[in-house]
Amino acid sequence: MFSLLRVAPELVIRRIFTNDSTSSLRLLVLASIALGLLFLDQKLPWVDAARAQLSGLSAPFYWVTSLPQRVGEAVGGSFTERRVLHDENAELKAKILILNAKLQRSATVRAENVHLRELLNSSALVKQSFRVAEVVGVAPDPNRHQIVINMGWNDGAYVGQPIIDEMGLVGQVVEVGPLTSWVLMLTDTSHALSVQVNRNGTRAIAEGGGRIDQLELSHVAATVDIRVGDLLVSSGLEGRFPPGYPVAHVTEVTVDPGKPFATVLARPLAQLDRSRHVLLVFTDTEAATALR
Amino acid sequence: MNSVQTFWLIVISLMVALALSVWPLPLELRWWRPDWVLLLVVFWVLATPQHFGLVSAWLCGLSLDIVRGTTLGENAFALVIVAHAIALNYQKMRMDSGLQQSAVIFVLVCFHQFVSMWALGLQGVAYEFTLHFLLTALTTALVWPFLRGFLSVAHTRLHAF
What we know:
heterodimer; A: alpha+beta; six-stranded antiparallel beta barrel; six-stranded antiparallel barrel; 7 helices; 12 strands; globular; disordered C terminus; B: mainly alpha
């Protein structure tokens, strides 16, 4: 096959008879630089900064690879039947009506809540605003549960920013480029967050285990009141996620008398492997201080 | 003139390989994704060792690090060693049959995967060790004859002009 490539004979001869010391030296230098970068990645702040700058270069690749899906959606949208669109429209209108009706009640409930909080002398709830971002890529490595979204520091995204979807908490931003950001999802093995049971306020730590549909609550005492079906919400105690967002449903509680802790498994509510759109949560700090 | 054309062919094939290595796949299929950039490095070292050496392989690895969002240096380290192994034996390897070359590629992909796992461990990611990486090695070895055929036709066509 490679005889087709017609390498000049004198070149081949030179290759055979030159000694390889320069090549070995080059290997040593290049491999050392690579290893140096690997080891210093977490030690030196400028490596992180350089990474963030360089990640702008990866944006075009994610733009291109998400193109087929976006074209498919656009084409699918323009070739939908009128009747289907009509039905969908009616359905959405009905949904809006119901949501607005619920919202009417929520205004009075919120006012009541603020009033009660004042009576209890507890701090006011922090206001939040959202921005919709599109998921443009998923981590190619099966060991990492990360997604790429199409908003970077130009859109105000920052490291540690909470990400939610319509169902619940998705994860947090771990790396920000100019146009894209990497989001670490709840189920990644390196992720953990503080949650509480909505029913009774019991606190626990929910850790990812590397499975997209499972979270594990660590160090739950065997006597703690957690039942299958309980809703876990973020408690905000780790200081990163806003409190009160739904995280997961408890799916399994196993108490083994031989072990000090119960095994509690939960299924994340957010559609981690299916969401096309996610929301960036911006905490409105000025509003928060003004309220206080 | 030829080397300019070869340069552009290398750049274009690298861009395509990078796009393929981040192409969104469902979680179950992600282990089956061939190691495109490694294949590319092997091909170009075999085809034109005088144009594509260790520095080029290192740069390919670094661009893979940037695009895939892995730790800087992870793929650069693995691919520079792969390129060195091929560069030492390229004359022997050219004479090998497709099956023999695929077997070598299988082993090289395993090496690349081990480096990636080691880098994950270095970052403190507690991954579960599974034999799934063999799937990646398998698909990469199977893709090799086709990629080699395609790229060498492109490469020789280019030289015919």
